[in-house]
Amino acid sequence: LKNKWHLVIDRLTVLFLKFLEYFHKLQVFVSVLNYVFLIAWAFALPYSQFRPLASSVCTVWTCVIVVCKMLYQLETIEPYKFSSNCTMPENRTEEEIKVLSGSLLYKAPVDPSEWVGLRKTPDSLLVYLRSNPYIIMFANHTCDIVDWALVMVWEAAGQSSRRTLNNLLMLGILAFEVTIYRHQEYFRCRNNLTAPETKTIFHDITRLHLDDGIVNCLKYFVNYFFYKFGLETCFLLSINVIGQRMDFYAMIHALSLVLVLYRRRRKAIAEIWPKYCCFLACIITFQYFICIGIPPASCKDYPWRNPNSNFNNNIIKWLYFPDFIHKPSPVFLAYDFMLLLCASLQRQTFEDENKAAVRIMAGDNVEICMNLEAASFSQHNPVPDFIHCRSYLDMCKVITFSYLFWFVLTIIFITGTTRISIFCMGYLVACFYFLLFGGDLLLKPIRSILRYWDWLIAYNVFVITMKNILSIGACGYVRSLMRNSCWAIQAFSLSCTVKGYDIPENTSTCKLPSGEAGIIWDSICFAFLMLQRRVFMSYYFLHVVADIKASQILASRGAELFQATIVKAVKARIEEENKSMDQLKRQMDRIKARQQKYKKGKERMMSMNQESSDGQAVQKAPEDDDDDDDGEADKEKTKGKKKQWWRPWVDHASMVRSGDYYLFETDSEEEEEKKEEEEPPKKSAFQ
Length: 687
Fold this sequence. Notes:
Blueprint: H1 2-28, H2 32-44, H3 51-72, H4 94-100, H5 112-116, H6 125-129, H7 132-140, H8 145-159, H9 162-190, H10 214-245, H11 248-261, H12 266-292, H13 313-319, H14 332-352, H15 356-362, H16 374-377, H17 392-417, H18 422-441, H19 446-475, H20 478-484, H21 486-492, H22 520-536, H23 540-619, H24 629-646, H25 648-658, H26 669-678
């Protein structure tokens, strides 16, 4: 464990010292002498075969610089003798004279040695001579480098000048790097060890341990995070360069990013990646050359400072032109260097992907087939199923692969609503489209999903590129835009987000949307879009698609069962209604039969009553006409009583039928059928 951590510390130290070495020389003093360091390491980073040569060249060149700086401190060398006194051009306005008074050419005598990288210091020559023994020791590597480096830095910090300290620190870093490599080689030779194929911290963690738990998963990503997500990291650093600079070279970076993303497939990007690394190395060296500029001792100003030119300070700064009034900031090159460093590591990753030993340890980075069907491929998926959440790692996978899509849509919605501009409308349209059709989109083949998703990424990169291009108006021509085209400022949210530009204040007629400019949310959206694209290209996502399809199938089957239940109930209700209608028809037929029978009986009874009344009239003699009316009333009463006595049912039936009760004289047929159904079946002999 101790030896392993020694190697780890050595590797991290080398990476840190590489960056410190580059950035220290870059930011402190831009000169011709330091140009050698930049050229050496700008091309040594992407091309590893040049790194030993670059270290040797930088070591020798640092010694030469230190010697030259010490010799330049001799009293016999007097800079004022060969300094140039430049005269300010005539026929200039007061405003132009005020601007030119801050130029390097006219504010003081110009020392040509400063352009080279040499400068007089008030310190004595003895300070530099005391550093010579340490320099010889570092160059020969004959002592404990770490101890001597601490002594040298302490001595230099107390007695040397700042720029000499920088060179000595550079020399110490280079010597420390050589010591680390020699220590590793000595340790391996002594213990009969071979150099590992993968420069990792946890050597016992491989791709097979990725799904064993959270701890092993974290160890795996500590080892191989850049191997898995290095390409996306490079894209994010490219977006960072664009956002930090927002100038002409940022636009070039944006166009180069578009060309790389246009290839889409990882294998196609790997084919052009060496050219991309060469492009980054060339553009860094060219920008440093611009920072150096032409020698000021010639007393010739740049043509864009001509009074007939239409360039102002803001335009010169945006175009990153060399200038004696406002020098180009070399700090921007630090962002380019970080991009170049990650691009160089990614180039090495592309080469390692073709090695069998690396693929066994770290797994392959081959993209899945675009035409895969999740339902048919789920049984042959090489990664385990995590849908049922057997561990905390499975829960994290479910959150990442199942719900990240909807979280990304939330980020897109926030990106479109935090600012008000024409570009934000595209984010909202895309968000609503995926919210409407996203569920169905996830069930399509990977090729169809990536087609829509890549269009969204393309729009995001287009917005970033357009904001960078429009920044020339927001930073360079903002005054004219505020006077004549304030609508364009509000429509596109034009506002300069980089410090150092001369920006006017808001007026009553036009206000700059300073809080709504920039590409911060666009960068965040780009990061999540790239992450979700990796999710789509993962085998783990196929388990999610298979689970969604299974859920839909189960839901459709449940709907079918529910529909069948409803249909069955409707059919039973229809049968019951038909049965009731049939029963009602039978009852109506029976009622009609009874009614006909009743009519016939009534007619027969009326005829019988008529015959009886006629017979009684013939047999009985008429009474005397002298009887009074009371006697006739008594006879009619007696006659009615006789009718009720010998035919009592006639009047009772008439009274009953007059209330229509005869329609319900019989029992219901349903009760008869129920009684028939309730009768138990006959038992067989066996029972």
